[in-house]
Amino acid sequence: MRPYLGGMAEKIPYPPTPDDVPDELTDRPPELVRQEWFLLVGLMAFLALYLATVLFFGFATLWCALSLGRYHVFAALGLVFFGLTFLMLAKNLFRRVEPDFEEFKIELKERDQPRLHAFVRRVCAETGAEEPRTIWVIPEVNASAVCPVRLKHLFLHPRYELCLGLGLINCLNLSEFKAVVAHELGHFTQGGFVDNYVMTVRGIIGNICSGRDWFDDFVDWLKSSGAPLAILGFTLGGMLWVLRGTTFGLYRVIGRTEFQLARANEFHADLVSASLAGSDAAVQGLFKTKHSSDFFDFALDELRRAADHKLYTADLYFHQHAIADLYRKKKKEPKKGIPPKLDGPKAGRKIQVFDPDDETDGDPNDYHPSGYEREENIKNEFIEALIDERSPWVLFDNPAEIRERMTKRFYRVAYNVGKSAAAADPRTVQKFIDEENAETTYDPRYEGSYDDRIIDPGDLDELNDLIQKDPWTDERLRAVYEKLYADVGARAESRAELVKERDAILSNEGKVRGRKARKLLKDLDTKLEKADEWFHALDRRVYLVFVQMAYRVQDSLYYELINRYRFQLAIQKFYQTASKHGAMAIVTMSLHGGEGGAIPDDDFVELMHVLREARSALRKILRDAKELDLPAMKHFEEGDRLADFLLDEDIVKELPETYVKGKWVDKLMRQLGQVMNRTTRLHGKGLGGILKLQEAIAERYLAKGSPAAEEPLAPIFDDDPPASS
After folding, report:
1. Is 266 helix (H, G, I), strand (E, B) or coil?
2. 366: helix, coil or strand?
C-alpha cells in the first residue's frame, strides 16, 4: 500500500508520471535473482570464515593466558602472537568508514524543506521504496542512496540515507531530477530482502578490507622508536601485510560476480527511472549529469585561482552555468553538454543522445555502464512522458540560503578558509575568472600549438649573440614570419593525444596499473620528447623573428620581450621539476603501495628516496623563486615576490630516516600540487602575454614597412635589461 501523502501531494511541483508503462518493464530477470543468491552465499561464506578465524585466535589467546602458570615461555610467546593477531582481525569488525563527502554534508530537515521531502516521499510511493531516514545535500554533481553499515546490521534492518548534490540540482530540470531520484531509490526495490542483505554484508566486508587506521599509525610509531620496539613494529607490519593480502585474495574470488551484479542493477535502476519520468528525462538527465560534472570541476579550478587572491564567491552554483561557454571555448568543444532539442514526448525515440565514439575507457573497476549502453537499455522500450522544464530549485524554501551555506562549507573544508572571510558577489568573481582566461586563451591562428605545452627556444644568450652577429634582412624576416605556423594543426593534435594518454595513467583512470603503467609512461615520455623537438625548433624561429622585429620597432618592446621570455623559462623549469617529482612519487606509491597501504620492506628504501628527492626539489624551487619578481600581469602587481605566491606556508619538514607517515606524504603532495597549479597558471598567463606582445610587435613592424637601412642591434644583457622609454 502506498503511504498517504495528504494535501501536500497536490501542492508540490511534480512532473506527470507516464501512463503506458508495461507491467514487466521493471521486473528482474530470473538469472539475475539467482546470481544475487549466489553472491549472498559467497559473501556469507567469506564473512563466516573471517568470524571463525577471529574466534580461533581469540580462544587461542585466552588459552595462552590461562596456561601462563604451566607453560611459561611458550604460553607467553603464544599470548603475544595470538593476541596481536586477534586484535588485528577483530578491530576490522568495528571499523567505521565514513562515506564520501562526509565533511561537506548538510542535513535537510522536513520542517525546513517540506516540499523537497514531500517530493521524495511521492517518488518512494511510486517506486515502492522505503522512505529515506535522512536527506542530505553535498556540493557535487552527484546523487546516491546509501545504507549505514555496521556489524549490528546483520541482525537489524538499516534505513538508507538519500544524498543529493546541489551541483546536480543546479543543472537539471524537474523531470530529469525526478528521474535521478527514482534511479537512486530504484536500487532499494531490487530483489527485496536478498538484495538489501547483499548490500549490508558487502558493506561490512568492505569495512573489513579497507585501508589504514589507528593500528597502522601505531605500527609506524613502533618502527620509528628504535630497537627493540622497531623489531616489534616491523614484525607487526609483516603480519598486517600477510593478513590483508590473504583477505583481499579471498574476496577477489567473488568480486567478479559482485561486479556483474552491480552493473546489472544499474541497468535495472535506469528502467525504474524511465518508468516514472519517461525515457527522454532519464537519458537527458544522464547526459547533463555527465557534462555538468566537467563544468563544475572546471569552475572549482577557476575559483581556486581566485581564492589565491583572497577572492571568495558567495555562490558556487552561479559559476557552474557561467563557466560552461568558457569551458567549451577553452577545450574547443563548442557542443559540449548541449543535449539534442526535443519537440515533444515522442521526439527522443529516434534521437541518439550519447555517441558511442565519444565513450572513452574509464576506471576498469567502475561497474557503471557507459552512457551509450544505458541509453540503449532505457530506449529499448520507449516510455513517452511530458517534460517539466522547471528547475528543481522550486522544491526548496529559500534556495539562495542553502547555496550560500554550502559555498561557505566548501571553502572551509576544501580550502581551509575561515568563517570570517568575506564573500564577494559572484559576478565580481566571474569577472576575475573571465579576465584570467582572456590572458590564457590564445588566438586560433596558433591551432593549439601552445596548448598544454612548454616553450623551449633554447639558450637565450646564445640566440641573442647569434642575432647580434648575423641579423636577418627584412626580406628574410618577413618570409619566415609568414610561414611560422604552417603545418602546426596536425602536429598539435597528435601531441595532444599523447598528453591525454599520459594524464590518464598518472590519474589512475586508465586500464593500465603497476609496473606496466611505469613502462608505458616511459614510452609515452619518449614519444612526447620526439614530438616536442619539432615544436622547440618552432619556438626558436619565433624567438628569432620577434626579437628582431621588436628592436626595429621600439627599444622598450625589445627589452620587455626578452625579459618576459626569461621569466617564462624560469617558471616552466619550476613546473617541470615539481611535475616530474610529483609524478614519480605517485607512480612509485602506486607500484609499491600494496593492498590497503602496506609497503613491502624491499621497496621501502626506494619509496623513501623518491619522497626525499621530491622534498629537496620543492625546496630548491622556492629558493630559486626568491630571486625572481613577477612581471606585469592581470591581478598581479609588477615586482611581487614569486616565492610568496608559489607556496603560502612553510615547506614540509625533512622526512625521518626510518619511517614515513601518511600525513607527511599528503602534505608533500599537496605542496607539490600547489606549486604545480600556480606555476601552471603563471605559465599560461606569461605565455599569453608573450604571444599578445609578439602580435602587437608584428602589427607595428609590418605597418612600418622596410627601413631604408638596417641598424646594428643593441647589446642584449645577461641580466634583465633596463627599461627604455
Report:
1. helix
2. coil
Grid coordinates representing 107 are 542535513
Last residue of a domain, one of 224, 259, 276: 276
- What are the backbone angles phi and psi of residue 107, rounded to the nearest 5°? -80, 135
pLDDT exceeds cutoff 90 at 547: yes
Q: Tell me how far apart the alpha carbons of residues 714 and 695 are, in angstroms, rounded to a whole number.
A: 22
Q: Ramachandran region of residue 101, left (φ > 0), alpha (ψ -120 to 50) or beta?
A: left
- Residue 179, SS3? helix
Helix locations, 308-398, DSSP H: 316-322, 324-331, 371-379
Q: Are residues 205 and 301 in the same domain?
A: no
In a domain, 562, yes or no: yes
Say whether the peptide bond before residue 228 is cis (omega within 30 degrees of 0).
yes
User: Regarding beta strands 134-138 and 143-146, do their DSSP bridges make them parallel or antiparallel, or are they unpaired?
Assistant: unpaired
pLDDT (tens digit per residue) in 105-153? 999 999 999 999 999 999 999 988 888 989 999 999 999 887 766 656 5
Alpha carbon separation from 441 to 311, 633, 635 (Å, rounded): 22, 14, 16
C-alpha cell recorded at residue 552: 626595429
- Dist CA 705 CA 693 (whole Å): 19
Q: Is residue 400 part of a domain?
A: no
- pTM higher than 0.85 for the full model? no
Number of domains present in the structure of the chain: 3
Name the residue among 179, 184, 185 with its Cα closest to residue 383: 179
Domain-located, residue 719 = no
Per-position DSSP letters for 554-612, written without gaps between them: -HHHHHHHHHHHHHHHHHHHHHHHHHHHHHHHHHHHHHH--GGG---HHHHHHHHHHHH
Both 268 and 302 in a single domain?
A: no
CB 630 within 8 A of CB 645: yes
Q: Residue 339 is inside which H or E element, if any?
A: none
Question: CA gyration radius for the chain?
Answer: 31
Helix, strand or coil for residue 402?
helix
Please count the other Cβ atoms lying within 10 Å of the Cβ belonging to residue 558: 23
Residue 548 CA, chain-centre distance (Å), reads: 44
The DSSP bridge partners found for residue 107 are 136
